[in-house]
Amino acid sequence: MIAEVIVENATEVRTAQNAGANRLLLARHIMQGGVSPDLKTIAEVLEASRVPVYALVRPDLKDYAYGLDRKPRIYKILDAYRRAGIQNISFGAIEGSMINWLLLEEAITYGFNITFNAAFDFTQELSVNYLLLSMYPRVERVTTRGQAVNIPDGQAEVKKLVSLNKPHLRVMVEASGFTYENLPAFLQETGVKEIQFGRTVRDEHGKLNPITLAQYVSIMNGKPIQKEKRGLHSGFDISSDVSRYRR
C-alpha cells in the first residue's frame, strides 16, 4: 500500500515520513488548491526525503485548461525542473472535457515520470481516458475521486478503473471523504493500493497532523486503531470544484 502525502517543505517531509508516508508530492499553497514549488524548496525536500518525491506542475490556482495565455508558464516550469534534474512530476491538462493530449505529449518529451493529476476527473469517459493514458509508458498513475466530491461516492467508478488492470498505470485515489470507518471497506471493494493525503491530514490551520496520517496508514496496512487513540479528522474534508487540487 502506498500513502502519498502532499507536503510544502522539508520539515513536513520529515513529519510525513515518520508517520508512514512512502511517497511525497511537493506543492505550495496546499490549502488554497496547490501550485508549483520553487527550485530552492525542491532541493531542500529532495535532500531531506528518503522516499520518491513528485513536484506539482501547476502555475496558478485556476483550472487545468491551459490556453495560450498560460501555456508559456507551463513550459517555463517544465524547463526549470528539467534543468534542476527533477525526475518526477504531477501534471494534468484538459481542453474542454478532453485531455489535452498535445500538451501532455510535450511534457513527456522532457523525460519526466508523470502522475496525471486531478485534471483526470474533469474529463469525460474516465475508463476510455485511462486506457489511452496507459499507452504512454512515462505516465505512471492517474489520480481520481471517481468524479465525485468525496471519494466514497465515486467508489463504483474507481472500481471500474482498477478492474481495467493496466499494471503500469496505477490508480491513486484522493483521500477526501475517507474516515477511519469507511476506508477499510473501500479498499476491500475497489482493490485500490494507493491513496493521496492532503487536507484530510491537516488541521483547520493547515498544519500537517502526523497522528491522523499515521492512523490512516495503519488502517491501509490492515492494522485497526483503538477508538480512544484516534486522531482528529481535518475540517477540510469537503471539496469544491474550484479548489480541488488535493485533499
From TrEMBL:
InterPro entries xref list: CutC-like, CutC-like_dom_sf
Top-rank taxon, per record: Bacteria
Family the entry assigns: Belongs to the CutC family.
Protein's UniProt name: Copper homeostasis protein cutC homolog
Organism: Deinococcus roseus
Encoding gene per record: cutC
